Amino acid sequence: MDLRAIAAAPSDSEREAVDALLGPAGEDAPVPAAEAAQRRTMLLPALHALQDRVGWVSPGGLGYVCRRLAVPPAEGFGVASFYALLSLSERPAAFAHVCDDIACQVAGADRLCMEVSRKLGPPARPQHRADPHPGGGSPPAHWARSPCLGLCDQAPAAMVTRAGVRPAEAAFGGASAASVLRALEGALPAPALPFIGGQGPRRLLARAGVADPSSLRDYLAHGGTAALRRALELGPAGVVREVGEAKLVGRGGAAFPTGRKWEAVARAAERPHYVVCNADESEPGTFKDRVLMECDPFAVLEAMTVAGLATGSERGYLYIRGEYPLALARLDQARGALRQAGLLGADVMGKGFAFDVELRRGAGAYICGEETALFNSVEGFRGEPRNKPPFPVQSGLFRKPTAVNNPETLVAALDILRDGAAAYASVGTAGSPGTKLFCVSGRVARPGVYEVPFGTRLDALLELAGGVPGGRRVQAVLLGGAAGTFLGPDELAVPLSFEDTRRIGASLGSGVVLVLDDEVALLPLLRRLAAFFRDESCGQCVPCRVGTVRQEELLARLAAGAPLGSVQAEAALLDELAQAMRDASICGLGQTASLAIQSALAKLRPLPEAKP
Ligand SMILES: Cc1cc2nc3c(=O)[nH]c(=O)nc-3n(C[C@H](O)[C@H](O)[C@H](O)COP(=O)(O)O)c2cc1C
Ligand code: SF4
Ligand code: FES
Question: How far is the CA of 536 from the centre of ligand 2 (A)?
Answer without folding.
Answer: 9
